[in-house]
Amino acid sequence: MEKHRVVGVLRQMEKFLRGQEVRFTEGLRIMKSKLASLQNSVSKFPQADESSPPSTCPALEAPAHGRKFGTKFLVGHEVHFTCAPGYHLVGPGTRLCQEDGTWSGANAICKDVSECASTPCQNGGTCVEGINQYKCTCPQNWSGSHCQHQTQTAPPEWSVTNDPAFSRRPRCAKVDQAQTCSCDAGFHMSGTSDNSICQDVNECEVYKTERGGQLCVHACVNVPGSYHCSCPEGYRLLPDGRSCEDVDECLTKQHNCSRPGTTCINTGGTFQCVSPECPHSNVNLSVSYVRTSPFQCERNPCPMDSRSCHLAAKTVSFHYLSLPSGLQTPATLFRMATASAPGRPGPDSLRFSIVGSSSRSLFVMQRSDRQTGELILVQPLRGPLEVSVDMDMSEYAERSFQAKHVAKVHILVSPYSF
What residues contact residue 416 under an 8 Å CB cut-off, 6+ apart? Predict the structure, then answer.
């Protein structure tokens, strides 16, 4: 097309969108006015139909040391419960608001998990409970976090004594007829005044056992007089010298996903070659799908008389998430929403649910607004691990089913927490 025709088409579209915006704003104003009038009318009759069934359930509180997910107390809505670290849930984790205005199941409680139940203290040590931790009180001649060392024989945990490469002779000088000796940085003096030696200080052990913090995010390597940090395969060390960053093999072309129809997905420390497949055609139900992008399939048009075909998912999408091990929960992992084409009314309501997952207890579905549902992780995942979960979003207009969309979420959990 010529440039002036393109400009003309764009101007027509701008006028069309402005008209749609004005009509939408006016319709919204009229609807708000009608709702206000209806509310005023209802408020004049406080004793309406007392025989109608209840539409809500009593408010539920989160158990002590736990959390509650779900703010809707309407009939058909669910509320979910989880416990804080160090506690486990006793009772139902999910309760449903029933037609008679009562909640299903009984009240759940969070019970304390005893840290000393596994008897971690050795050699007669006594375990003392703390807040999400324990401490061993050791008998005489025993030491260590689990009373595992004999104090008479165990060498200092922060000193390297059995390797000649980590020992040096001290620097000595006579000052006022007295001899003074010292060690280089990273070494400490050991032995008698007549036979002293400089032994390496294991900085990795010092910071791990005595100061409550680690020098390196992953692995600390002790060297004579110093230390350095290392990262696992698939990660690189950052300029700060202690943190690790995942290497994106897909971005840097360090992968072998060359087969047609295969896509590289970066994960923590490695990658995966994936080739999502559309659902298989069902001749009896007249359902078949066609791939519209590498990660989405759409249902082919249904015969007019095939109700089962119309109930099948209209779209099926594939999503891959890479998570660190032990991610702090609750964490929102994925959002699913609907959108209407310009000039066409959207659905009156949406229903979200989790289907087809053997790990449903790890997740809950929750609305963030009228058009969006969120997949929330409520239990920490320890890698390496792969978990799949299917999300179902159904559209309704005037209480009639319109269409269903399925999102297949594949979660890849790294063995590391960074």
Answer: 218, 232, 235, 244, 268, 269, 324, 325, 383
Amino acid at 286: S
Alpha-carbon Rg for the chain, nearest whole angstrom, is 33
Residue 54: CB partners within 8 Å, gap ≥ 6? Answer: 75, 100, 101
Task: For residues 160 and 168, give the distance between their C-alpha atoms in angstroms, rounded to a whole number.
Answer: 12
Whole-prediction pTM: 0.56
Residues 6 or more apart in contact with residue 126 via CB below 8 angstroms? 136, 137
Cβ contact 141:122 at 8 Å? no
Report how far residue 308's alpha carbon sits from residue 285's, in angstroms, rounded to the nearest whole number: 6
**CA angle 295-299-304, nearest 5°?**
170
| CB 405, CB 393: distance < 8 Å | yes
Mean pLDDT split into 10-residue runs, the chain, 418 residues? 80 84 84 84 59 77 88 86 84 88 88 76 80 72 67 53 79 73 83 71 76 77 91 93 93 90 92 92 84 93 88 93 92 87 76 80 87 91 91 89 92 91
146-152 contact pairs (CB < 8 A, 24+): 146/120, 146/121, 146/122, 147/121, 147/122, 147/123, 148/122, 148/123
Whether the bond into 63 is cis, omega within 30 of 0 = no
CA–CA separation, 339 and 347 (whole Å): 9
